[in-house]
Design a protein that fits this description.
Chains A, B: GO terms for molecular function: oxidoreductase activity. 2 copies of one chain form a homodimer. By secondary structure, chain A is α/β, with parallel strands linked by helices. In chain A, 37% of the residues lie in helices and 13% in strands.
């Protein structure tokens, strides 16, 4: 029997397909409504999923959009992840709440404090997805003209995470004694100032939030680059990966799990959860029809915008004709991956942009419940996944399809829980509570 | 008949009295529990109060604390205001949610985005209390050794508020057309980039959150200095003032209301709500007993710490003896206000620190429901207040006393609502929705 898997649900915007907002069942303003997300989170919790997740960018990424494309995209107006997940903490009881925050345009004290607070509010269900910001559109909202170079971003990110983890250790678990008789509120030997002085940050501490129910929130990462993998191997509890095929997934899994020992960690201390966008039907034809129906809702002006950054303006060509060979050698070089894909699979322009518009980089799986669960089981058996980050094409319908059609089959094979194992996200994921850096030491206490 | 007043409830920590956490009815860990704040917010909402409020500092203010004092203070471990109020937005329906955020150690894009999000989550009940950060303890959590000088802080604050207001105008109210037939999600003529370039900030925009139910969140300020009053007169909807007596309150009220015309605003566009800490009993003796009972719960080590910054270490003196005259002329100068108070009212050391420990600068009112409402009515009649920011000595008990004992008397005099006037905080406060800076203009639209 295949071992149990973990399942997250990504719920940004109205789903991962660019046509989602035009789907007849989708509320196009859902991304600005609490009720939309309450419906999703409660359904996911009733299905015993491990966590809901919100990806994020700090601004509208207008770069490379040709005129007329941006106004056809629903990926423009939304709520902010931390406030939204905090609201959901009050109306859910078991499901994990993972929000993204950038290390590029934030300060570690704010992030440590806000996520510690979310961990208290939720009774131990907070997670932080650690990212760096790579777009000029974001840089321009934060006093810069261009985004930071790659090396600086990752160096800053690594130090940022160290500071945040340090601040989360400020209070020992038993620091608050609350002795009304003696008037002692906390034991001063159990409160610690971090006194961090580094290249990017100088942070004294201590944090003004007591130690959280999970010891510290779950750390999530999506590190695909070498520096990203290093941050993940050192600190992450969960990695959302983006492998496109099983062999690539297996190689990534082996590489990242192998890197853990360098940081004194064992392979089971980090869970790898590739993203998948599912189209599920009672028959393969029904699944394919669901897929095609959403594809037809992507206006070619919007669709061409996904090729614009690499291939330039293709609006003069027939979208149902072949992908043109660029004359400009520089464009040929930038668009190499897309051109190879188009040639290999003999795609039209419309089919080419659909490969992006249908999931924005997540792997697509189209089929019956049996097909979908076979695929998941194969990845787990091959050593390519500990679970999956579900990225439904539209919400809530795409999630409902998975829960109603695929989840019973996963359970029938003994691959997914029927009850939560505990109360915290850490307990659901089967991860140990971290030790404080001050455990067994007297150093650093507040005098 | 006195006109209707507005009422806010300040709910930081466990109340405004330093002895609150030792009160027999108080849960000393309440400040880290969602259930504690849900109880308070729902009770305040059932009583039709305008809003709940959280003051804030970004770190533990250890400065000037002598050894042994900090560990006797509950003002050390708490949750972060924005996450906490976001959680409360999901379990309340009418009460306003006002959270503090510093302009000194934040970026305007984050603040604009998060508060716009809270306004959507709550259906139009968000407020931002605008502050600057003045303590070295906070500076040291944000890469600095000392806090910014006063002038820089206020200059930055004024520009910060302008940027935030500008970002909140990014989307016209009717920008989202959501036309599933044509595929147009928003009207690009109704989305505006701010393109702000100033001394402290460069922010392009637009904001990635659509225009909020209140047009923009309510802006709150506590400006007592001249620069503070200017920011308030230009932008604030509500001011929390700290006047200690009615004459001072009347003068402040007249000065601030008089300043509004400079910014093209009328006096009724800004509400002034002085803070009060009430001790209420069926008789005056009962009220006084409640006050004394809490005072007795302030350990002298903690009490002396409130004098430490101005008067130095007084631990060698009898706390129930007279306040000693400092030999050092510099100390005499710094402690001038406290020394005058001690002489005028013939206070012991214990009585002197109690004036601080009992409300941290808010005005104390001790008496029967009749006394308390007489006092409020007198302030309103005198032109010193449009309402009050209630700062209960301990929570939830101090709030319950006000609601059960004083509120019926306020209502009997026709001074407070029996039902909410609408759904948003702006409607409760009787304030108009702001116009967008782009109304009637075509400039600034995204192409």
């Amino acid at each position: 029997m295949t071992r149990q898997i973990k399942l997250g649900l990504s719920m940004r915007y109205l789903g991962y397909h660019a046509g989602a907002w035009r789907h007849p069942e989708v509320d196009p303003e859902g991304a600005s409504k609490l009720s939309h997300f309450v419906r999703i989170a409660r359904t996911a919790e009733a299905a015993k999923l491990d966590m809901v997740f919100l990806a994020d960018g700090i601004g509208i990424r207008t770069k490379d959009e040709p005129p007329g494309a941006l106004c056809r995209s629903a990926q423009t107006a939304e709520m902010e992840p931390l406030t939204l997940l905090s609201a959901l903490s009050a109306v859910t009881s078991h499901i994990g709440l993972v929000a993204t925050a950038s290390t590029t345009y934030n300060e570690p004290f704010h992030i440590a404090r806000k996520w510690a607070s979310l961990d208290h509010l939720s009774g131990g269900r907070a997670g932080w997805n650690i990212v760096t910001s790579w777009s000029d559109a974001e840089a321009r909202n934060f006093n810069r003209d261009e985004h930071l170079d790659y090396a600086t971003r990752y160096e800053r990110a690594a130090e940022f995470v160290e500071v945040v983890k340090g601040l989360w250790d400020s209070w020992d678990e038993d620091a608050l004694v609350n002795d009304k008789q003696t008037g002692i509120f906390f034991d001063p030997a159990k409160l610690h100032a971090l006194n961090h002085v580094g290249k990017h940050f100088k942070v004294k501490g201590p944090l003004s939030v007591k130690r959280t129910p999970q010891g510290r929130p779950i750390l999530v990462q999506a590190g695909a680059s070498d520096q990203g993998i290093d941050i993940a191997a050192e600190s992450a509890d969960v990695v959302y990966s983006v492998s496109q095929d099983m062999e690539q997934g297996r190689a990534y899994y082996a590489k990242l799990k192998g890197r853990l020992a360098r940081h004194g960690r064992s392979p089971d201390e980090l869970l790898i959860m590739p993203g998948i966008t599912h189209f599920i039907g009672a028959t393969r034809q029904e699944a394919q029809d669901k897929y095609e129906k959403l594809n037809a809702l992507v206006d070619p002006i919007l669709g061409l915008s996904y090729l614009y950054g690499q291939m330039g303006d293709l609006s003069g060509y027939d979208v149902d004709g072949p992908v043109p060979e660029p004359n400009n050698p520089q464009v040929r070089s930038i668009a190499k991956g897309l051109l190879e894909l188009a040639h290999r699979e003999n795609l039209t322009i419309r089919q080419l942009y659909t490969t992006i518009a249908a999931g924005f980089g997540t792997r697509l799986v189209i089929g019956t419940p049996q097909d979908v669960v076979d695929d998941m089981e194969a990845w787990v058996e091959a050593g390519a996944a500990d679970g999956f980050n579900l990225c439904p094409p539209y919400l809530p319908g795409g999630m409902d399809d998975f829960i109603q059609l695929a989840l019973p089959e996963l359970r029938r094979r003994g691959m997914f829980r029927t009850e939560y194992e505990g109360k915290t996200l850490r307990e659901s994921l089967g991860l140990r509570k971290p030790r404080s850096r001050y455990e067994g030491k007297n150093s650093g206490a507040i005098k």
